Amino acid sequence: MSEAPLLSVRGLGKTFRRRGRGFLAPAVEVRAVEGVSFDIAKGETLGLVGESGCGKTTTGRMVVRLLEPSTGSILFDGVEISALAGKALRALRRDLQIVFQDPMSSLNPRMTAGELITEPLVVHGVGDRVARDKRLRQLLGLVGLLPHHAARFPHEFSGGQRQRIGIARALALSPRFLVLDEAVSALDVSIQAQILNLLEDLRSELSLTYLFISHDLGVIRHICDRVAVMYLGEIVEIATRSALFATPRHPYTQALLASIPEVGEGKRRFQPVTGDVPSASNPPPGCRFNTRCPHVFERCRAERPPLVEVAPGHAAACHLLTPSATTSTGSLQA
Amino acid sequence: MDAASAGDKTPLLDIAGLSVAFAGMTVVDRVTLTLDDGEVLGIVGESGSGKSVTAQATMGLLPDVARVTADRLNLMGEPLLGAGEKRLQRLRGAAMSMIFQEPMTALNPVLTIGRQIGETLLRHGAVTAGQARARSADLLSRVGIPSPREKLDEYPHQLSGGMRQRVMIAMAIACHPRLLFADEPTTALDVTIQAQILELLRELQQEYRMGIVLISHDLGVVSSFADRVAVMYAGRIVEDAPAASLFARPAHPYTRGLLASRPSASHDTPRLQAIPGTVPPPFDLPSGCRFRTRCALAQPACAQLDPPRLQVGPTHGAACLTPLAEAAA
Ligand SMILES: Nc1ncnc2c1ncn2[C@@H]1O[C@H](COP(=O)(O)OP(=O)(O)OP(=O)(O)O)[C@@H](O)[C@H]1O
Ligand SMILES: Nc1ncnc2c1ncn2[C@@H]1O[C@H](COP(=O)(O)OP(=O)(O)OP(=O)(O)O)[C@@H](O)[C@H]1O
Ligand SMILES: [Mg+2]
Ligand SMILES: [Mg+2]
């Protein structure tokens, strides 16, 4: 990457402390995210994919500073933002915004769409009433809503329309960077396509940069330039979209891709990886995928594999891919 | 899916002209479906299209306020409409059963897993009280639950989502039903766990020669699992065909629209062709074809006429006045 990335995350981690089950039980530590590093160039979309509980939302919320990181650094446009507070943090919020999965639960049901969309402007003291009204009409148009929609309440909209409101609200302060956290996951496929198209249009019209969080690999493949795959709090593989889908190198990425039922493949059998995702409060030692990995060997149970570059711009964390993997039991080529 | 074409063999499930209304609003409208022994029928459609209500009507699980009418609603030749609640209760579990998207709604949170499976078995006289525990453990083991004996004493909330779904499947197949409704059985699950559950259902289906009605909004899931597929839109079946034929040669503009709006994980998709607008609610349905307000190919006649099912292939039908030509090829 020749130009400095817009966002650069290094060694990001978050540990939650949760009360243990039962009276007097000791507190449980949940390492929701550990050692996560990635860059996102201006105008680029990085996908964050992985199964439930792997730490996608936690990562996204840390990046927009809705959640305090336990470790690591976040550089936004060259500025360290992981420790910003007060006024500087407020100023930063104008640049970084987040759109959530379920617009219904993130939108105040007693506010009209117009109030919801302009609320960030009011909070940040941007413009007067007239200027805000003008901006509201602009934003409604931008996300494909009509002027008369401004007077309606969230429950009077369909799911897709509510997501448009959520996007308009996130765009109100003209941010440069958006985290989209499962922003299309709750929508029916025909509506999901409308919102994906809208997000693509906005990206080019407003030169936005996205961190796109989803568990849906089809959606990820469609909208992202590069993709990071997470498993139990860690990035296990990161690559360009084409490399990740054509030559996945981590056994977990391979398992994910092999598990997706596709239209047109006809009736088929799956050879699913066995077992459940282990709990984040009790991850296995060594490689976190070792309890389910078809290629597991001794070293995987003892040692954490580092993320190593396997091709330019393509990195994966697997002992089979590290040079000294002499005890390997199988080939990783799909 | 023409019922008459089933020949002399009685189909496992034979539904003709099934309609369901709530407070005067028709949410399932003259649905016709048949299913043979050991066959898998997929029902796809967007939220609110009537997939679950169709299944619940067959199972006799709709609340009393639902008005259910049908020309035929037969399970192995036996009419279900008008059968008493007692008879339906016997049939549920023994002859037909159902699994849902969220096992937590079907499992009792305050009873152990063992107790719940045991009660299902006892209710249908499948075992004596003394055998219930052993048989329950067998079932848990059959659905791939590790250390089944220990799991018998656990409560639903102690299990992962995938394990809960396995428990619900164990309960559903406990009495070897001929017909299983699987209503979005993997929608709440991660994709690697979904693959495990689909694989399990496939094994059980072949082992027991069950007929399965798989309800899903995921075209990929249906394509990989079903023999035949029915596409629902706003309470109606708009297209039905063998799965291979439906996905290779979709004839209804809605089916085509669904396929074109779906991003694929196995190949790059150019800009998605989103279907404009939204599904009309049951209290605001357009005249004639219900899809016409979103259909790029709509003509004036589409507002006048309720499109009948047109045959576009030997076992492929579409409810469209001008089903897309290539489909017939
Ligand atoms: N506030 C919290 N307190 C304690 N644990 C938490 C908290 N938030 C998240 N976790 C835990 O951290 C882990 C990561 O959660 P996170 O929500 O980031 O996952 P995710 O990848 O977004 O999952 P999903 O796909 O289900 O949204 C999980 O084990 C979760 O239970
Ligand atoms: N008990 C009920 N009372 C009133 N209306 C109902 C009831 N159950 C379902 N409906 C309505 O019937 C229509 C069809 O619902 P159904 O649950 O069959 O949809 P579905 O296709 O299964 O959708 P989803 O994909 O969201 O599960 C919807 O408009 C729904 O609101
Ligand atoms: Mg999340
Ligand atoms: Mg349903």
From TrEMBL, chain A:
It comes from Alsobacter ponti. The lineage of its organism: Bacteria, Pseudomonadati, Pseudomonadota, Alphaproteobacteria, Hyphomicrobiales. Residues 7-257 form the ABC transporter domain. Transmembrane segments: none annotated. Belongs to the ABC transporter superfamily. It comes from the Bacteria. This is ABC transporter ATP-binding protein. The keyword Chaperone does not apply. InterPro entries: AAA+_ATPase, ABC_transp_ATP-bind, ABC_transporter-like_ATP-bd, ABC_transporter-like_CS, Oligopep_ABC_C, P-loop_NTPase.
TrEMBL record, chain B:
The keyword Nucleotide-binding applies. Keywords: ATP-binding, Cell membrane, Membrane, Nucleotide-binding, Transport. It comes from the Bacteria. Pfam families: ABC_tran (PF00005), oligo_HPY (PF08352). The lineage of its organism: Bacteria, Pseudomonadati, Pseudomonadota, Alphaproteobacteria, Hyphomicrobiales. The keyword Membrane applies. Gene3D superfamilies: P-loop containing nucleotide triphosphate hydrolases (3.40.50.300). Residues 13-259 form the ABC transporter domain. Belongs to the ABC transporter superfamily. NCBIfam families: oligo_HPY (TIGR01727). Coiled coil: none annotated. GO terms for molecular function: ATP binding. This is ABC transporter ATP-binding protein. It is a peripheral membrane protein. It is found in: Cell inner membrane. PROSITE patterns: ABC_TRANSPORTER_1, ABC_TRANSPORTER_2.
